């Protein structure tokens, strides 16, 4: 430190056996020094104090003049261009010779350039920040970004027992077209059921009052008259009298006769149906005028609905913040 300094402060401890001295010089630059004292047996006033050590502060830092700068030190800058004595951390390949001190400090941690004459500067990706590491072997590698493991709660409020009103709009007066597909030439099977053992009754129509002819050959008067008059006296040589008149039966009045057929046992009758050829049937739906249809929704009881929260976001975990540039001293 210089022989003359602006200020000096001594800070003794509670037992006055130890102390701390701080000196400053504001004449030419802002510079600070510090030394400590430890009293012990056999020490002299001169040996009690340790040598002065200069303190480094950013007040002394000047990359342009390389005053008190450390090659490879990264600073954040609020301007749009890297200040003198620094390079933008954009991953560019720069000369190993021109920036020899910087190359000695960081080597090829951020890229070997062309492998011979250049090396790469750190590349600060858009929107990312610098993170601290306790593992020197990981310096120069990018983090993948992550947040603390967590879950999202989601719920939907119960709406209680309720129903929903449903309205079906009127479709206007209309009808619906319909058709039946052709089924090809075909016939339909039919059947009759069995009625058990039975007979059928019937009747004849009335034919008015009448008589029936009854031929016979006796020579006697006929009580109800006769049909024709062919009777001749005598007989034929054959002994067969065939010329007698035919008597009439007694009249029965206008009447009809009933009859019953014999039972045929339990049976059914076959019924056939002729084929109608390949055809379709016309179907029409009557028009019912403009109308709507009522609909109802049944109560589902008090309930809630499951909610799914979908993933969102990008591939990197980027904090919100104010954009500035990172620069590295050389």
Automatic annotation (TrEMBL):
Source taxon at top rank: Bacteria
Record-annotated Phage tail collar domain positions: 72-124
Matches recorded under Pfam families: Collar
InterPro entries found in the cross-reference section: Phage_tail_collar_dom, Phage_tail_collar_dom_sf
Signal sequence segment: none
Location of the region described as Disordered in the Swiss-Prot/TrEMBL record: 153-265
Residue ranges, compositional bias (Polar residues): 241-261
Biased composition (Low complexity): 153-165, 175-184
Record-given protein name: Tail fiber protein
Organism: Stenotrophomonas maltophilia
């Amino acid at each position: 430190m210089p022989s003359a300094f602006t200020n000096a402060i001594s800070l003794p401890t509670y037992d006055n056996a130890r102390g701390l001295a701080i000196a400053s010089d504001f004449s030419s630059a802002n510079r600070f020094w510090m030394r400590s004292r430890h009293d012990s047996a056999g020490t002299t006033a001169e040996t009690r104090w340790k040598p002065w050590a200069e303190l480094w502060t950013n007040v002394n830092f000047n990359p342009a003049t390389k005053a008190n700068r450390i090659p490879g030190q990264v600073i954040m800058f609020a301007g749009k261009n890297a200040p003198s004595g620094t390079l933008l951390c954009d991953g560019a390949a720069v000369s190993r010779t021109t920036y020899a001190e910087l190359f000695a400090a960081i080597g090829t941690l951020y890229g070997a350039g062309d492998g011979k004459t250049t090396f790469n500067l750190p590349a600060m990706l858009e929107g990312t920040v610098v993170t601290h590491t306790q593992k020197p072997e990981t310096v120069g590698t990018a983090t993948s970004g992550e947040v603390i493991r967590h879950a999202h709660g989601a719920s939907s409020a119960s709406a209680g027992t309720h129903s929903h009103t449903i309205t079906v709009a009127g479709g206007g007066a209309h009808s619906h077209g319909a058709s039946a597909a052709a089924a090809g030439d075909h016939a339909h099977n039919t059947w009759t059921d069995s009625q058990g053992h039975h007979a059928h009754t019937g009747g004849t129509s009335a034919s008015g009052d009448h008589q029936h002819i009854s031929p016979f050959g006796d020579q006697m008067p006929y009580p109800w008259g006769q049909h024709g008059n062919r009777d001749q006296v005598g007989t034929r040589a054959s002994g067969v009298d065939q010329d007698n008149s035919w008597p009439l039966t007694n009249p029965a009045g206008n009447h009809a006769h009933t009859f019953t057929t014999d039972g045929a046992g339990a049976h059914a009758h076959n019924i056939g149906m002729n084929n109608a050829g390949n055809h379709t049937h016309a179907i029409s739906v009557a028009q019912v005028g403009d109308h709507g249809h009522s609909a109802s929704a049944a109560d589902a009881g008090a309930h809630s609905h499951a909610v799914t929260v979908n993933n969102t976001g990008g591939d990197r975990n980027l904090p919100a913040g104010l954009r500035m540039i990172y620069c590295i001293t050389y």
